[in-house]
Specification:
The chain has 141 residues and is α+β, with helices and mostly antiparallel strands. It is 38% helix and 22% strand. The chain has one domain. The longest helix has 54 residues. The chain is elongated, with a radius of gyration of 24 Å. It starts with a helix and ends in a 6-residue tail after the last strand.
Length: 141
């Protein structure tokens, strides 16, 4: 009887150990996904700010129809999710790169403006956003 009880205890310890390992793995993958989602949300807020800058007349401190000279305000440069920078700001669009402060990964957004004719019909490419991810975020992208 003693050997059977010892075997059951060992088996129970192994099963609990496997369950803990699986739980930690699930928590880690959830944490990575949550951080990526939060960074995408932050970048979308920055893209909205860039859009506001682009449509604001130059006389009011805006871009007057261009993203050229757009810079991030200090409050948008860093959050609890990541640090962000504008790597390119041209007449056509802006590129925003976010680097995670929690995990080893980056998220990049290329945000372009849509040019429309007098009837409101797009005259060029209508793909406004293009995303890319590197590092640990490659798993979920």
């Amino acid at each position: 009887m003693g050997q059977q009880q010892l075997l059951l205890i060992i088996l129970g310890v192994i099963i609990v150990g496997i369950a803990i390992a699986v739980g930690l793995q699930l928590f880690q993958s959830g944490s990575v996904g949550a951080n990526q989602d939060a960074m995408i949300n932050d970048i979308m807020n920055i893209a909205a700010h860039a859009q506001q800058y682009m449509i604001r007349p130059g006389s009011m401190g805006g871009g007057g129809g261009s993203f050229t000279d757009y810079t991030l305000p200090g409050r948008l440069q860093s959050t609890g999710n990541g640090t962000y920078e504008v790597t390119s700001a041209t007449n056509e669009g802006v590129t925003i790169v976010g680097t995670s402060v929690i995990h080893d990964g980056t998220v990049t957004l290329n945000f372009t403006r849509i040019v429309v004719d007098g009837d409101g019909v797009p005259t060029g490419d209508t793909d406004v956003y293009s995303w890319s991810s590197t590092g640990v975020f490659d798993v979920g992208s």
